[in-house]
Design goal:
165 residues, five-stranded mixed beta barrel, globular
Length: 165
């Protein structure tokens, strides 16, 4: 809803930042991941685009995020997300299916943001930092909510990417 309001006010370029759950243990807590696409396992995106398995970030937004990371000397990873708003349904079987589909992380809004942006014809990208670890043998919070410096970095990268977009 907030993104719709911002677009109605005239914005044409948006970069979101935040945290995510990590499906691949090699992604360290705090490590930046630039999302290139997201599996649509939520309801909002279907109000903006016809049914499809995935939605994608705008290529120019991904490039701007990459440029911002390089300019600030920040190592990053490009990755696919599994967007779900049913976090208590992140079962081991579903996690394994998303890994088989190439997902690296899980979060709650990227596929909807990507769909909204495509529908509205605007550039949108998203960068997240590795947060909690979502693995079949248990959940590891990895202190994701205490990572203030990582949050600041994501914000600064998002601002820099907006300036480059």
């Amino acid at each position: 809803g907030l993104a719709e309001d911002i677009l109605a006010m005239g914005a044409r370029k948006l970069i979101a930042c935040g945290s995510c759950g990590v499906l691949r243990p090699e992604i360290a807590a705090g490590h930046p991941v630039i999302l290139t696409s997201a599996v649509r396992d939520e309801g909002t995106s279907y109000h903006y685009l016809p049914p499809a398995r995935e939605s994608a970030a705008h290529p120019s937004a991904v490039a701007a995020l990459e440029d911002a990371c390089r300019a600030m000397g920040v190592e990053y990873r490009l990755g696919k997300s599994w967007t779900t708003d049913a976090f208590y349904r992140e079962t081991p079987a579903r996690r394994n299916r998303r890994l088989a589909e190439g997902c690296d992380v899980v979060e709650m809004e990227a596929s909807a943001f990507f769909a909204l942006a495509e529908f509205r014809g605007v550039a949108f990208g998203q960068i997240v930092y590795g947060g909690d670890l979502v693995v079949p043998d248990g959940w590891d919070a990895r202190g994701w909510h205490d990572r203030l410096s990582d949050r600041r970095l994501m914000f600064n990268l998002a601002v820099e990417a907006c300036l480059r977009l």
